Amino acid sequence: MAKLVAVSVGRAAPLDARAGDGGVRRVMSAIRKTPTSRAVAVGALGLDGDEQVDLSSHGGLDKAVYLYPAEHYPFWETVRGQAGAAGALPHGALGENLTASGLLEAQVWVGDRLRIGEVELVVTQPRTPCYKFDAHFGFRWASKMMVQSGYTGFYCAVVRPGRLAAGEHIELVAGERAVSIEQAHRLKTRGQHRDCFWGRLVPCPSSAQPSAPPAPRASCSRRAFCSPSRRSGAGRSRAR
């Protein structure tokens, strides 16, 4: 069974990133996450104590929680070592809220449910890294390595709010099983499909709790990849 290895949160803070002209500019980011041993409340827009800055890339109802497989950490430690930034990476180093074992991209599908403690999540889409990931990791090709490797992790929407903590087991409940996260990443980053991949969204099953906010929608059909429109995240002004 899959397991929640770590729960991490972070506040927005200045981050020095490479500008287009080769210089450095200071931006705000909450990509730096710190593991916590306490139980954390999870609401419709994410974890209590966690912030996001750029909702075009992260956050909102459809991308409220970011989960990353613990199995990929040795890869990133090797890559960083080759780039001259050796050392063990603490959990949360990929900017994730939840570090988990047993949930690789090829094993998880858009629309699958994850039940962790009191919380139920629905898998919505793979991560697309931005330039802030390069700045955070300390070398320019970090985001390209994530795209090329397919070690993206994935975003989840919150179906049932509640509390969760590191060490809890994760129950994976299969959804429609039309597109895996691995397949979604390949299609999302493949030439002409990149800008229209998330155009049409198929509703996921609604929450069992009437008091919970409406369940965000996740793309669950291969036919949905090339709609001309594209949906943006909704929510408060938070992002990585």
Radius of gyration: 17 Å
User: How many DSSP-defined strands?
Assistant: 13
Q: What structural class should be given to the helix and strand makeup? A: alpha+beta
Q: What is the helical fraction, as a range of percent?
A: 10-25%
Number of helices: 4
Mean pLDDT metric? 82
The string of secondary-structure elements, in order, is EEEEEEEHEEEHHEEEH
Strand-residue proportion:
25-35%
Cross-sheet strand order for the largest sheet? 1-8-7-11-10-9-13
Q: N-to-C terminal Cα separation, in Å? A: 30 Å
Poorly predicted residue ranges: 192-239
Describe this structure in words.
With 240 residues, the protein is of the alpha+beta class. It is built from four helices and 13 strands. The chain has a seven-stranded mixed beta barrel with strand order 1-8-7-11-10-9-13. Strands 6-5-12 form a three-stranded antiparallel beta sheet, with no helix packed on it. The longest helix has 10 residues, at 73-82. The radius of gyration is 17 Å and the shape is globular.
Tags for this model:
single chain, 240 residues, alpha+beta, seven-stranded mixed β-barrel, three-stranded antiparallel β-sheet, 4 helices, disordered C terminus
A few lines on this structure:
With 240 residues, the chain is of the alpha+beta class.
Topology:
Layout (H helix, E strand, L loop, with lengths): L1 E8 L3 E6 L5 E6 L4 E3 L3 E4 L2 E2 L17 E5 L3 H10 L15 E4 L11 E4 L2 E8 L4 H7 L4 H8 L4 E7 L1 E3 L4 E5 L7 H8 L52
Parallel strand pairs: 7-8
Antiparallel strand pairs: 1-4, 1-8, 1-13, 2-3, 5-6, 5-12, 7-11, 9-10, 9-13, 10-11
